Amino acid sequence: MAAVCWGLVFWELEGRAYASISGPETRTGTAPVPEGATFVGIEFAVGSQLRAVPTSALVDRGVELPDATHRTFRLDGLRWETPGPDDAEALVDRLVRAGAVVRDPLVAEVRRGHRPVVSERTVERRFRAATGLTQGAVRQIERVRKASALLAAGTPVADVVCGLEYFDEPHLAHALRRYVGRTARELREGTGGAIALALDQPTTS
């Protein structure tokens, strides 16, 4: 399903280690999960960005990182320890301290609901530079992800429409088709295949 954040993904398959950068997703899609593979993923907060790779270059695509091993991977010209499930926060701290991951304070301010003393055009330009997406796209994707989680938890469709301020049920249905690839009924019944709905998982940085 669509997602507003970029991330780092590490996995092992048949004795070989891999690492990649995942980008924001503006539409529904599927990612193969090979049998026997083990994964560790880190999702970064909206507005965080890599110094070496513009977030706009990651939208709807990913970048495999070269020379990954079971112990280390290469990013921003340096080698870093490949994290395990309990090491993600420590890796993020190191990336931030080294300046490999940066954050535009204006975007953080906007995300907290503040109104910066700059023009709307400047806000939008910097928001898009940091996230690869417009503010409107981020709001739509975050809303439909909340809707999906509520529907999967059994919340009636009408309550989701009202609570998340969709115009009507067809409006919600259109958003679900575009960004999730499921109908409200499929989400409520748990059919149509597995999707990532870990909305309570905290983002980092």
Automatic annotation (TrEMBL):
SMART domains membership: HTH_ARAC
PROSITE patterns the UniProt entry points to: HTH_ARAC_FAMILY_2 (PS01124)
The UniProt entry, under InterPro entries, shows: HTH_AraC
Under the GO molecular function aspect, what terms does this record hold? DNA-binding transcription factor activity; sequence-specific DNA binding
Gene3D superfamilies in the record, alphabetically?
Answer: Homeodomain-like
Pfam families the UniProt entry points to: HTH_18 (PF12833)
Source organism's superkingdom? Bacteria
Please report the stretch or stretches of sequence annotated as the HTH araC/xylS-type domain: 118-190
Entry protein name:
AraC family transcriptional regulator
* Organism encoding this protein: Acrocarpospora phusangensis
